[in-house]
Amino acid sequence: MFAVKSIRLPLRRMITLHAAVFSSHGEPAEVLRTHTYEIDEHKLSPNAVIVKTLAAPVNPSDINQIQGVYPSQPEKTTQLGTLEPSAVAGNEGVFEVLHVGSKVEGLKVGDWAIPTNVNFGTWRTHAECDAADMMHVPSPASSEGRGKKALSKNSAATLSVNPLTAYLLLTHYVKLGKEDWVIQNGGLSAVGKYVAQMSRILGINLISVVRDRPNFDEFAAYLKDLGASQVISEKENNSREFKDVKKWVAETGGEIKLAFNCVGGKSLAGVARKLAPNGLMLTYGGMSLQPVTLPTSLHIFKNITSAGFWVTQLLKDNAGLKRKTVDQVVEWYEDGKLADQPAEEVLAGDVAETFKASIKASKTGKQLVVFE
Ligand code: COO
Ligand code: NAP
Asked: What confidence score (pLDDT) does residue 7 get?
């Protein structure tokens, strides 16, 4: 008779991950697919964390990245076990920390975090990564524990692109006096709505241009409620007879020193014509797919400057600016001064199929994919 010896097997608990990946560029409907793989939560290296995705949005740049018309690209590798080198899509999202390695400091189980850098690949159910790849943001428990307003999944998941863009457009380039003005097109875009809210917080006079629509007055009232001083339609923007802008600016005794363009084409020219001499036009998007064409006279006789803005490059070039800007935006959320931009919340099913549907729907409104 042999005595039966109990053998202690190493503990293994596998987590199954699903990620929306692409290995070649093209329209997302054609190139995005779900890849499933497993990680062993007990084999975590000392400086690593395992996080669970809470929510991730669809931004125009995420689509451009998959299309291959966006210069910032994640590296395609076979690290996740794909047959072909692939990358996980998505650049923004909020995660909950599930496990921390033995040497991790600054993050603990239950914390909320956002990716430190772009190209993280947020369209997945979980991720295992270096703790340094995650930036802590307050979880609802943390905010409420300090008597503050909790960040919603939406506000945390969309923290690093649009609010940071709005804040940096307004503050990083031109010193504005109380009497001066900013004008922007794409007034109803998520960025445009953050620009409106932050203009109110910062005491900046703002004109927002929005596309003509039957219920224009309703949308104009909504934007004024957010913080735009005046709202005009594209028809008014492009009309030489429309003189109200001059009147409003004369009333404060200032100048339109700064303009933001995310549309291009005709809209851009209308906005640029309203700039004061030596004004600055920052182009940060091209939603009309039309080029940035400016009237010659604006350059020769008004000496306006047309420049680009890319939050990704700006934050890469300025170490520390992302943390500082994120902290400012979080403070405004927690103080109830800033509200997140409404998004249609979609519960994630098959990851790639959910994001494909959300990309389609994003043409008519912001989409946020929420994970259970
Ligand atoms: C795009 C873009 C910003 C690139 O715009 P460009 O005007 O520089 O593109 P091209 O000069 O290469 O355009 C050539 C051609 O392709 C043109 O058609 P024709 O006039 O008939 O020749 C364009 O209409 C067409 N084109 C360009 N992009 C696209 C396209 N067709 C289909 N799909 C796409 N994507 O303007 C764009 O995608 N704009 C919408 C999204 C946007 O504003 N992206 C800005 C990204 S920056 C950002 O979001 C950063 C976040 C942190 C890619
Ligand atoms: P969003 O909320 O999805 O809004 C998109 C906006 O584009 C809407 O206001 C829409 O106008 C407008 N639009 C769509 N098609 C148009 C067309 N053919 N002509 C004119 N306007 C059109 O977008 P978002 O996430 O705020 O992003 C807005 C822009 O900022 C995008 O171009 C994005 O790529 C860019 N962006 C750039 C940076 C950067 O660092 N450069 C950072 C963040 C965002 P309606 O409301 O009238 O439908």
From this structure: 57
